[in-house]
Amino acid sequence: MKIKSILFLSSFILFSISALAQTGKVSGVVTDSAGLPVAGASIVLRDKSTRDERSVVTNGNGEFSFETGCSASCEVIVKANGFGATSVDVSSSGSPLAITVQPQPLKEEVTVTVGRAELLTSETAVPVSVVDRDEIDRKAINTIGDIFRTLPGTSTVNEGGFQVRPRIRGLDSNRVLILVDGERLNNSRTSTGQSGIETGLVETSQIETVEVLRGSGSVLYGTDALAGTINIITRDTPPRGDTSKFRFGAALDTFYSSNENGRRGNIAVTGANKFFAFRVAQSMDRFDNYFAGNATDAERQDLLDQDLQITDDNEVLNSQSHGSNSQATLRFFLNDTNTLKFGYERRRAGNIGSAGLAGANTGLADQVGVFNAYFPFNNRDKFNVRYDIAALTDNLQRISAKAFYQTQYRDFTNVVTVGPVLPFFPGFYQLSDTVTDTKTAGFDLQSDWIFGNHNVVAGASWFRDTNSDRRFIVQSTTASSPNRTLRNSKSVPDASLSNLAFFAQDDFRVTRKLRLIGGIRFDRFLTVAEATENFALDPRFTEAQIEELGLTGLGDGLDTSYTSLTGDIGAVYALTRNVNLSARVGRSFRTPNISERYFTDPGSAEGFVVGNPALVPETGINFDTSVKVNTKRFRGSATYFHNYFENFLSTQLTGVQIAQPVPPGAPPRPPIDVFQTRNIRTARIQGFEAEIEVPFKIRLGYLTPYGNFSYLRGDDLTEHDPLDSISPLRTNIGFRWQNFGKNYYVDYNARFVGEQERLSNAFPPDAVEPGFVTHSLGGGYYLRRERFDFNVHLSVSNIANEFYSEQFVLAPARGRSFTIGTTIEIK
User: Fold this and answer.
1) Looking at the DSSP assignment, which residues form a beta bridge with residue 524?
2) pLDDT (0 to 100) of residue 519
3) Would the pTM of this model clear 0.85, i.e. be above it?
4) 423 preceded by cis ω (within 30°)?
5) Residue 80 burial class via C-beta count within 10 angstroms: exposed 0-12, middle 13-18, buried 19 and up
6) How far apart are CA 52 and CA 170, in angstroms?
7) Residue 14: partners with Cβ closer than 8 Å, 6 or more residues away
8) pLDDT interval class at 422 (50, 70, 90)
9) pLDDT tens digits, residue range 598-649?
10) Is 666 in a helix, a strand, or coil?
11) What are the C-alpha distances in Å from 187 to residues 112, 114, 439, 727?
């Protein structure tokens, strides 16, 4: 009994201390610069020590109230559409707060997480671009890949409603790491140099923010982060409610694009109280073939010469796609410092074309044939769970543990048809259908520590990609012929790639103005190929050729393991209150993937491709230095970078040839060349990037000119040749007008891409990659009420309907398109 009394008394004392440490009721009113109430603003009460957050919205009079306060270290954060975020510390007096929000003519400086620690963009040692939900809506993009057309240092690969991928500083595919909520979207089978991971696997309406880190991210995220890291942050549950009473919400987003009759719709339902919150969303999207700009007869013929198909009215064949996306997120607030989050996402995409590859001519048996390629489906399922503990001790600020399981199930089909030439040749038909089944499991543990002036992030991560392919081939004289040859085969053996890593990064504040940031990472990789039914080395290879190519034992299974040590160090110096200087040097790497090591089959374009189990990782030494300026009337940055890469992978002719199969009745054919991926290149990529934004207050509101500039130069130091896929000069300039109340905006943008004359010997001697200029104009309206918001965005892209192609992309880009997007939200 005595013990129970002591326990009760102790609990009462602790509760009393906690209650005394809390502020009283937190309330206030939010007004704009004209003194008018701001209804429907999101008010977040955040405990600085525990990071616990609760939220309410302002009523029609701009008023808000929290039933209970928080500890003495507490702040109120006000967010309202069209206004800059405002933060106010809460005093212990309990007096009502009077908060004035200002129109934000400059793009607001935000906190980014792509560096694993929460930092303002001006405080990072590497250049970071952030695209928030408002900007995504204003850009009127078809797919997330379109975002990268206008950011500094970035460009795009491919065209269409699903296939557009990012390129950062001249590198793309598996040399750019793409994360979704901090978890890998890349995998070691489909993230290949030829195709890359499709960002279309993340549906645009589900995205809240995109963070683009340019430069090496290997210390924090490991393999693939050679050129940059992209973290796609999806829409989350509402913040924690203030009471046990549920606050429900709903939103409807719509999008229509006239060019390809593109349409997308998304509906979401949310709810939150002080114990848990949820978000459930469903979307559907469909994009037909798009239309290029006004092509001349010569331009149309040039496409046909490259086996790309375009109709007389400039329709780009085989560029369609359609899909759906389901998302469910559930978060439990166990107490003020512990949260548990579950998530599920289901992406279904189908009938995905490869723009222009429809009815393309191909030579076979000295006859003119037709080649067609598309993806009947490309599906992704993802489950994840995350547990966060905050404010454990004075030194240990947070522990975050998360795990995920993701599957990508993709089907690629190509069809070759060659007409008959009777009586000598009966014709040829081949359908090849390859299904790739890749499963990824991952785990990440991160801890955040404070030791005096040291902010340390340390942890461990693990992932394992497991892949199984199957290939079905049908051959006959015609598509309808009953006499068929059926064959099952595998281009890649059943294989896996696993990685266990440990990392640590220290942000050391040396003085009030100087911070040093350094990190180190240790990785252990294991790649395993199993003995697999229907996978074997082609019998046309001789023993001598197998030994020369390093393929001995591949059909029986192979294991490859190795370790990697990576580090970087940087500095940020606050020259003045508004000017930061930074520099960083670091090592980056990318491990060879399953496809590069083991793919052995006829190539998609020509020749026969074999794997190379002996490949070693690509490595880089990356240097960045920047100046960032941020004042009330000016925002800008300038960055110089110099990246040196060794052991670059490249597909090369091996000098080995094998006999080429001859269809029945066809004349003999010459031997076929064998290609193999090898570590052969040393490369250097350097350049300059700059951004600027300058607002002016005029009679009708704010007029803000803005722009960015990128210069890029790449050299193959092994061949003493220019690197391809390098766009030398890219400039985006424009202006944005907003009224003082931030109800209306108009945005004009012009994109300039300079001609590239520095091309490798793979191009004809007089070849150039043409430059181009495009113009876009958009505008919108925001209606804000206490529990209701309505936004509408209208735009026209490629106003002049110019015919052009993105550099080093074969398919032409979209012509003129009118778009309209709307959002209706009930809070």
Assistant:
1) 500, 563
2) 94
3) yes
4) yes
5) buried
6) 42
7) none
8) confident
9) 988 877 656 789 999 999 999 999 999 999 998 878 899 999 999 999 999 8
10) coil
11) 24, 19, 9, 27
Contact present, 587 and 620 (Cβ < 8 Å):
yes
Separation CA 16–CA 10 (nearest Å) = 10
Considering the chain, tell me which residue range(s) the CATH 2.170.130.10 domain(s) occupy.
Answer: 112-230
| Burial class of 307 by CB neighbour count within 10 A (0 to 12, 13 to 18, 19+) | middle
What's the number of CA atoms in the CB half-sphere (13 Å) around residue 766?
0
CA neighbor of 159 nearest in space, from 289, 294, 262, 258: 289
C-alpha span between 772 and 782 (Å, rounded)? 34
In the chain, which segments carry CATH 2.40.170.20? 231-826
CA 568 remoteness from chain centre: 23
Q: How confident is the model at residue 114 (pLDDT cuts 50, 70, 90)?
A: low
Residues 68, 665 contacting (CB under 8 angstroms): no
Tokens representing 511 are 């003085």
Q: Is the pLDDT of residue 9 over 70?
A: no
Find how far residue 267's CA is from the centre of its chain. 23
What are the structure tokens assigned to 145, written together? 């890949």
Tokens describing residue 433: 């259908």
- Interatomic CA distance for residues 387 and 8, integer angstroms: 30
Would you state the pLDDT for residue 287? 95
CATH fold, domain 21-101, is: Immunoglobulin-like (2.60.40)
CB–CB of 397/390 below 8 Å?
yes
Is residue 123 within 8 Å of residue 109, measured between CB atoms?
no
Residue 22 identity (one-letter amino acid): Q
**pLDDT given at position 104:** 64
* Rounded CA separation 617/649 (Å): 9
Percentage with pLDDT > 70 across the chain = 90
- Model confidence at 369, pLDDT cuts 50, 70, 90, reads low
What does the pLDDT look like over 283-330, one tens digit per residue? 999 999 999 999 887 777 777 766 677 888 889 988 999 999 999 999
Q: How far apart (Å, rounded) are the C-alpha atoms in residues 436 and 569?
A: 39
**Token duo for residue 596:** 């590069």
- pLDDT, residue 604, reads 63
Residue 52 has pLDDT above 80, yes or no: no
Task: Give the distance from CA 209 to its chain's centroid.
Answer: 10
d(CA 162, CA 321): 6
Calpha distance 186→17 (Å, rounded): 49
Tokens 């007008």 correspond to what residue? 737
Q: Cβ–Cβ contacts within 10 Å for residue 457, how many?
A: 20
The answer regarding whether domain 231-826 maps to CATH 1.10.645.10 reads: no
The CATH 2.60.40.10 domain(s) of the chain lie at: 21-101
CB crowding 359-379: b at 16 or more within 10 Å, else e: ebeeebbebebbbbbbbebbb
Report the top-level CATH class of 112-230.
mainly beta
Instruction: State the average pLDDT over residues 757-766.
Output: 88
Tokens of 712: 């890029």
Predicted local confidence at residue 10, as pLDDT: 41
Structure tokens at 541: 């290879």
Calculate the average pLDDT of the chain: 86
